[in-house]
């Protein structure tokens, strides 16, 4: 399929007049809808916005490639738009965007469509084509420029040998991948190939895009290579590069810094990559962020734990509501209560097991799970106590299991290939469980059972003043990054307290704090509509529902566009709301649900008042602080 079959003349906006990023996206989405390319504007636009939240598609040099693969797309297409004044699109180089390529791909896009999109992406690294497009005055001229560029690229590809020759030239291998695999994957591939050619070296680039893996690197390719460049924003197979010089960078660096990456490999400046064993499980690199890795592992455990928390917690909370009107021996109480209790039984084992798996992969899952279970058992210790190591013990079990299994992989690298199967089936399960179990039995449970007992006693006996301070802190943390590390840390602390004490006070604080940011944006856009774009006003309406549903992420688009005002306002309001909930002794024995679980709350009126006060304070600060929109000239 040729590029011209996707880049149709009726899908061009040659004089885009947009005041900001949201306005530009809105106009392009409307054009696609008007031309019958998409059937649902909201669905497709949500996909575009979600991709922008992951990382901007403004790649620099005045180009942006917003894209989404969505069920609402009727046929694959590319919309071309040109802005003579440029639009602030949060580009990586901070420069306004003049050329837009909005890519619409159906969920079941076939290989022909994907290959054409990949070809389009690879052409856009040519500065001459980009400059000519900025000067183009008609859709015919744009079409002709791409036709000429496509033909020139085909001739160039035919002139070059498609396979890597065995020569004395330096040889590098690379992997390119992005979450959607539509544009950036192939732009990085093209940029790396172009830079390699300019430097007179050979390169082979494996792409992990929507078409699947293309140009897969062989064992011979990797062994022959001077070094490896991985430009990826998603998981790729890494253990095959064990012992090679390797740079691991975001995919955007493959587009904008391809020459620098190649120079670093040629100058032997890349660190040596070490897999944790010969089994092919690990993909972290030696130059990765230590705390970033810990956060990733922790979030993996929490994400797998949350369904148990939400499902079990709400069902259990409903049983408490039912208990108020029926005897505690009634089936109507015991049935939901036991289901919730069973779900809660797995919270800490699931958390520990998946933290362990994130670190040591599948061999670490079982010892991590059992270690987490031991953290919930009062008798599983050299001291018999009624206290358990609990949430803290589970965290330690998970991280310890992952580290121990990785350590075992290194120790048993000497095992002959003929006996490789023994390691995951025999060595890792037995030794891993023995070591993790011993750690929990002799050290972690005795120590942290006491710590957990102290925390439980402190929380139960906490005075009003301390409770208000803690509620203020937790509420404010929920708004700092709206789903990020601070938010998750506050939520995890409240869950730990809830599982230990069955007291929903701190759950109330984090629930109130998490509801306020989206509600604040709803308040601000309603009271001060002239200070927000049409897109933001529409999002503000949606945030009334998202806010009362405890979906803090509804405020993220606003925080992305204006982080200082939105985040500061939200933190102030959330801190006030969280503190008030504790001042009025509000308790919500459910880990999710927002206002929908108000029937389960103690002091229901004060629960609502805490939310309203916090939202009004945050929304008022945001609305007054926000400057008026500049009128488009």
TrEMBL record:
Quote the Gene3D superfamilies the UniProt record gives: 3.40.50.2300, Mannitol-specific EII, Chain A
Q: Which GO terms describe its biological process?
A: phosphoenolpyruvate-dependent sugar phosphotransferase system
Query: What is the recorded name of this protein?
Result: PTS system, fructose subfamily, IIA component domain protein
PANTHER family named among the record's database cross-references: FRUCTOSE-LIKE PERMEASE, PTS SYSTEM 2-O-ALPHA-MANNOSYL-D-GLYCERATE-SPECIFIC EIIABC COMPONENT
Q: Where is the PTS EIIA type-2 domain?
A: 5-149
Any Gene Ontology CC annotation: cytoplasm
Q: Please state every residue range assigned to the domain named PTS EIIC type-2.
A: 294-633
**Which locations, inside or outside the cell, does it occupy?**
Cell inner membrane; Cytoplasm
Organism whose genome encodes this protein? Pediococcus claussenii (strain ATCC BAA-344 / DSM 14800 / JCM 18046 / KCTC 3811 / LMG 21948 / P06)
SUPFAM superfamilies (UniProt xref): Phoshotransferase/anion transport protein (SSF55804), PTS system IIB component-like (SSF52794)
The segment(s) forming the PTS EIIB type-2 domain are: 172-267
Membrane topology reported for the UniProt record: Multi-pass membrane protein
- CDD domains with a match to the protein in the record: PTS_IIA_fru (cd00211), PTS_IIB_fructose (cd05569)
**GO MF terms, alphabetically ordered:** carbohydrate:proton symporter activity; protein-N(PI)-phosphohistidine-fructose phosphotransferase system transporter activity; protein-phosphocysteine-sugar phosphotransferase activity
Q: Which UniProt keywords apply?
A: Cell membrane, Membrane, Phosphoprotein, Phosphotransferase system, Sugar transport, Transferase, Transmembrane, Transmembrane helix, Transport
Which Pfam families does UniProt cross-reference here? PTS_EIIA_2, PTS_EIIC, PTS_IIB
Transmembrane spans:
305-322, 342-359, 379-405, 426-448, 468-486, 506-529, 541-559, 566-584, 604-625
